[in-house]
Amino acid sequence: MSPRLPLVLSSACALASVIAAPLVAATTPTLTVDTTAAGAPISPQMFGVFFEDINFGGDGGISAELVKNGSFEFADPITGWRKVERPGAAGGFGFATEDAPFARNPRYARLVVQAVGEGFGLRNDGYRGMGVTQGARYEFSAMARLVAGEAQSLRVELLGPKDVVLASADVAVSDRSWTRVSVDLLAGATEPKATLRIQVSAPGTLDLEAISLMPYDTWKGRRNGLRADLVQLLADLKPGFIRFPGGCIVEGRTLENRYQWKNTVGPVEDRPVIYNRWNVEFADRGKGAYDYYQSFRLGFFEYFQVCADLGAEPVPILNCGMACQFNSGELVPLDELDPYVQDALDLIEFANGPVTSGWGRVRAEMGHPEPFGMKMLGIGNEQWGPQYFERYAVFAKAIRAKHPGIRLITSTGPFPEDPKFHYAWGEIPKVPVDIVDEHSYAPPEWFLDNSQRYDRQDRKGPRIFVGEYAAHVPTRRNNWTSALAEAAFITGLERNADVVVMSAYAPLLAHMDAWQWNPNLIWFDNLRSAGTANYTVQRLFSHHRGDTTVPVRLEGAPAAANGQPRLYASAARDAGARELIVKLVNATAEAQPVALALNGVTAPVRGGRAIVLAAALDAENTLEAPAGVAPVEEALGEFAPGGTRTLPPNSVTVLRLPIAP
Ligand code: AHR
Predict the structure, then answer these.
(1) Helix 338-352 and helix 358-365: axis angle, to 10°?
(2) 468, 469, 476, 503: residue to mutate for ligand 1 pocket, most atoms within 8 A of CB
């Protein structure tokens, strides 16, 4: 689905053919599933999501706001706006900050109009246009102040191609002091790239600020809401957690550009806008986005709220006193870390404190007196080196002292096996750590070869969070080659659920017309959205997670030239459903029969079902054909222990067998 891309982090090895190689086992492989063994609990957080405002995933994406730069705070305040000066009109507009209604976003637009003619005003282009739907209502709102001249009646319109008017309404501005004005627009047609035009009715001087156009149809109908279709796609994953807000966003290119959660709560108009670090990151690869800023409409309150909606544990990540080490690598001196540590303590209070506490009161005033019940916190995103661990130790000591129940997450850097990674694992035993975050962006064959990675993990050490991962094919597309390799890898996470407790694909969201990085889990445009083949794998595993592991032994599997198997398996019990779940991944180009030995099962099993994902290696889900890669379900009738199941080429199979635990 995604267009061709620049390379970002992973190597460009063209080894997708490893998957396609026709590997057939000499004898039928056998999967022994020991249903008599007591397995380990599988974490309810095993499958979650990682949200970062990259690829216009936040502003212009999951945030439903349609006006770009409504606060005029972008470095170039005219960004997103055009002057409307139709025949006979005369006037101009500029920007001012005196006597502003919002101290932290002080800049506003001043229109000075000599003649109205056929129309004078401003026009906003949205985020690569505004998606509007026929019959849907949108609330236009702004802060307005009449500086000179008669009362105004602003004509507010949604325009389609060739300026056809899709919606129109008038709103009065008569106050000499700042007043919030609003009016509803009813869209007469569906248009993915509408624009918003605001025209004055009389000569004079008028100030406008915090201009907004919000659909009423948001997730749960909330006013500062999120795009319902995108949140629904997240909900459909049944995520066990949401890691937020990043990602490199947390770090910032410089410390000044870092994510500061306190600036993301309270009235949305007064959350200070900053440039998005993905604005310039890949400008040298033609992926700059000069108009990418963070308005924090999806701030920490909205984040905790959506976690609660989806039944997902919040996993906030905070800056640890370091800017992105791929950029400035700026460091906060150790003896100046206190405000950063205090931010972490205050976030815990914001999430969990009583309404009588300072930050608990802020949460209550925003509409959620009950605590959000945050249990985990990541210190730093993708940091590395001694500077990281000395800073991490300061945070960990302070948080452990005050909130011993909060599970702390530490970083191992950007790669899954390099000197930074090994250095991190050398330091981890010296600091208080509960969960270790590992990131893997790598070619598909890395994932195929690393299904056994966690078999070797120290069982007595901290738990593992595979916090960011994605298989990168050379074209960087979200095709079945990448999704299948991820499925193979995930069976290894499941088999090792006693140590691996969380995982998330990355990144999550990408706008078709405004992305910086790919592949991504979900693609969208201004009106449509679709889960990729990779999404389909995530959903399949999440929906069929189970509660406890069941040991499996796979013998006789076909192997690649490097000796690594290309058949993969895991098994679990679902106590509620009283079912045994067996997952099998065939990463070969041939149909593969597998004999299933179910230890402890003597009688044939009836009433089971198989859910199968199989596709051509280049198959993709697109906005036009979102179900290109989709599961097919089949009733199993009678399944005899020791019987054989043939796995289609390049496929993932989930067997659900009603076998009481
Ligand atoms: O997921 C995209 C980026 O990859 C994240 O911001 C960062 O943590 C990693 O390098």
Answers:
(1) 50
(2) 468
* Cis geometry, peptide bond prior to residue 462 (ω within 30 degrees of 0): no
pLDDT of residue 26: 61
- Residue that finishes a domain, picked among 545, 573, 591: 545
Q: Is the pLDDT of residue 533 over 80?
A: yes
> C-alpha dihedral over 114, 120, 121, 126, to 10 degrees?
-160
In this prediction, residue 445 has a pLDDT band, given cuts at 50, 70 and 90, of: very high
pLDDT at 27: 85
Residue 538 has pLDDT above 90, yes or no: yes
Query: Ligand 1 pocket: which residues have CB below 6 Å?
Result: 52, 54, 246-248, 381-382, 414, 468, 506-507, 517
- Going from the Cα of 248 to the center of ligand 1, the distance in angstroms, rounded, reads 6
Residue having the nearest C-alpha atom to atom 3 of ligand 1: 247
CB distance 428 to 436 below 8 Å: yes
**CA count, 13 A, side-chain hemisphere, 149:** 20
Which of 287, 317, 439 most suits a substitution to test ligand 1, by most atoms within 8 Å of the C-beta? Answer: 439
Q: Six-digit token pair at 11?
A: 């190597």
Asked if residue 146 and residue 128 are part of one domain, the reply reads yes
DSSP states of 502-563: EEEES--EEETTS-SS---SEEE-SS-EEE-HHHHHHHHHHHT--SEE--EEEES--B-TTS
What is the residue-averaged pLDDT of the chain? 95
**Structural domain of 375:** 49-64+221-545
507 Cα nearest atom in ligand 1: 1
Task: Check pLDDT > 70 for residue 14.
Answer: no
Task: Tell which atom from ligand 1 comes closest to the C-alpha of 248.
Answer: 6
The residue whose C-alpha atom lies closest to atom 6 belonging to ligand 1 is 247
In angstroms, the CA 293 to CA 214 distance is 18
CA–CA separation, 71 and 209 (whole Å): 6
Structural domains in the chain (count): 3
Ligand 1 atom closest to residue 249's alpha carbon, by position in its atom list? 6
Examine the domain organization and report whether 537 and 653 are in the same domain: no
Residue of the nearest CA to atom 5 in ligand 1?
Answer: 247
Residue nearest to atom 2 of ligand 1 (CA): 507
H/E/C letters for each residue in 382-423?
CCCCHHHHHHHHHHHHHHHHHCCCCEEEEECCCCCCCHHHHH
Kindly state whether residues 58 and 151 are assigned to the same domain.
no
Could you give phi then psi for residue 420, rounded to 5 degrees?
-60, -45
Residue 347 placed within a domain: yes
User: Which ligand 1 atom sits nearest the alpha carbon of residue 52?
Assistant: 6
What is the pLDDT, as a whole number, of residue 386? 98
Do 444 and 471 belong together in one domain?
A: yes
Residue with tokens 């595979």: 466
pLDDT for 460 beyond 60: yes
